[in-house]
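Deliverable D5.2: sample structural annotation.
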Amino acid sequence: RLMQMVADLSGVPVARSAFQEGTAMGAAIAAAKHLNLEFTDKHDPPSMVFHPRSLSAEKLDSFTAWRKLVG
């Protein structure tokens, strides 16, 4: 639900990685680059892509009100 909401509100597709340990992988990649180690970064296809849907008038009004509050 969260990923679909992000896609709906941003208006762009949101891909969810099939790899569940993305934060750990990012840390490992950063460490390897810092140590000038060769790191083969394989990109797995996303497990799911959430495409934006049109928002109802009520949801759009709520989002607009929220944006005004947070700046």
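Annotation notes: Residues 58 and 66 are 12 Å apart (CA to CA). The mean pLDDT is 86.
The annotation will be released with the project's public dataset once the embargo ends.
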